[in-house]
Amino acid sequence: MRFKCGCCGETVKKEPKIPEGFVGWAYCCDDCIMEWLESGEEIPHIDSESWIRREKRPEVDEICCIRVRKPFDEEIGDEFYMQLKSPRDYYTDEMTDEVIACGGIIKCRFESVVSRDEYIAWIKVRVLEVFMNEELYKAFDEYEREEPLVSEFERLNYDTGKWRGLLLWDGGGDIGEYCDIYTDDDGREHLVLQGFWDYHNEYVYFGNIVSKS
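Predicted structure:
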């Protein structure tokens, strides 16, 4: 199941390119991309924006509803990873540890289609595994880099003390990369999330990258 781009009308195929050191990729969760419906809420009309976004941690084997669009490219029965974000993450500019803790990487199996058109769909998925953001550095083996995790040229988006978010580069807002770094209780930094977006794609790569330097 693929979707057309609302701007150019082209049918979009998934094309993730996992950077060295990361263990996998997930579809990005964000406003106007892909989002989770709060548990127990009625699935809205496909064109509606008036519905409650999920903040609660999904449970393994739970059936959840997700609104998807490009670059989603899966068929019923396929397994994939989907990012979970608190709606406070993308509806406000104030990042806190509490907001970030509501997010994670969720492994799902595509169960059914509720409704769809050429650009968007509501689907049901079964939750297979849950990795909340603060668990990512424990869930995956460390991958060591010789160089620092980031350079002095990256732009700081936020810093909570425990988490730092940086813009690695961008091309006028239409294409770019960002990353999220977690500092553990021993003061060691872990690059656990790195996102990429362009006109047709938006993915987040996950893992546990540390620096030897």
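Summary: The CA atoms of residues 88 and 99 lie 7 Å apart.
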